[in-house]
């Protein structure tokens, strides 16, 4: 029988994974897999659960949100683990799973995983860390970091929206330097997004993004008068193409540098990122994923 490592975060999202464990394991076993489960907790880290990984495993199955996937990918890349991964999206936002068109229904997701072959997709690298979906800096960047964990688990994505509205009431601009072979920008901005996928907070932004083209999509929201800001944000939420606005810079690149002398944080897939200066590049087809088309 084929063996898979099953890493799960019991506290992700609405904690529904707790009530699905037997169904998950039995479904894989019925399809000829030996499932080796590992529960993430404060004292039992993902790294501990991956210590026994070797070539006897077919792939790693992870149940959690973007943060759990990000930590898994970082550990694998930094420890030369080249197994494919499969995702059961049980987090709060599940941005990356949505980009990959992985069903939120766990049974449907398992069906896709079992009946698929690994597909290689790109990753982003920011300094020495990897990201699967998005890296960012500026306003709203650390919303997911600042939301209380209990509030996040009880009302999910709404908690992000509430915190984001609070931030929008106090717009603050930052002076940055952005350099790549395609573009150089020095000036004020509200927010910079570097996307591997198309969405941030499940809002489609990088309309031309592809997961296997070896390029990252960069979006710079320049500082602008407040009367312009609100209509622009509403248009974007409705799905308007962002490259039509003079206040937004949108380009693709495989490498860029960002520096900022001000006191702002960075974010990688909902977790705190490195300090400035930032060197960001694309790891073309750097990971294999199951359950995607």
TrEMBL record:
Domain of life: Bacteria
Alphabetically ordered keywords of this record: ATP-binding, Kinase, Lipid biosynthesis, Lipid metabolism, Magnesium, Metal-binding, Nucleotide-binding, Phospholipid biosynthesis, Phospholipid metabolism, Transferase
Cofactor dependency: Mg(2+)
Residues covered by the DAGKc domain: 1-130
A Pfam family matched in the record: YegS_C
Molecular-function annotations in GO: kinase activity
Family, as annotated: Belongs to the diacylglycerol/lipid kinase family.
NCBIfam families named among the record's database cross-references: PRK13059.1 (NF009605), YegS/Rv2252/BmrU family lipid kinase (TIGR00147)
Protein name: YegS/Rv2252/BmrU family lipid kinase
Taxonomic lineage: Bacteria, Bacillati, Bacillota, Clostridia, Peptostreptococcales
